[in-house]
Design brief:
Blueprint: H1 2-17, H2 21-81, H3 84-109, H4 114-134, H5 163-175
Helix pairs in contact: 1-2
Length: 180
Amino acid sequence: LEGVLEKETEVAKHHLRNNDRRRALLALKKKKYQESLLVQTDMQLLNLEHMTQTIEYSLIEKDIVAGLKKGNEVLAQIHKEMSVEAVEKLMDDTADAIAYQNEIDEAISGRITADDMEDIEAELDAILHEQLSEAPRVPDSLPAESVELPNVPDRPLPAHETVQTSKNKNRQRLEEPMPA
């Protein structure tokens, strides 16, 4: 379309050079008409795009409304199956069961209070004190006289047999025939 508009401008210039003002004016009117058609077409395209978007949005809204309707139907059906009183009773029963289980756990585990723990620690301290008083006293220092220690060998000790080897030898002796 822009090529048509340029062509009309060239035609108008050509007619003006030939001193034909009427035909130049006609070419410019034709150009103006083409421009107005172009603007109208653009407006119609914009309206068409807007209408398409509105339709698409309306379809989405329709799907949303249908989804909400279906959701409300499902919620209504669930509410028919479950009343507020039944839920409250269930919650109370659950709380009672938890409290009962806690009582059982406390009875089984024999929970120790802070006072009980103090008593236990006092008893432990008494036992430790008693054991310390019964234990033989270790001298604080070595006697003033020197103690003679035994001589220690300065060469390696002879290898001794292991318990298993000794048992095997005893077994062999028992299995040997006795002389008659």
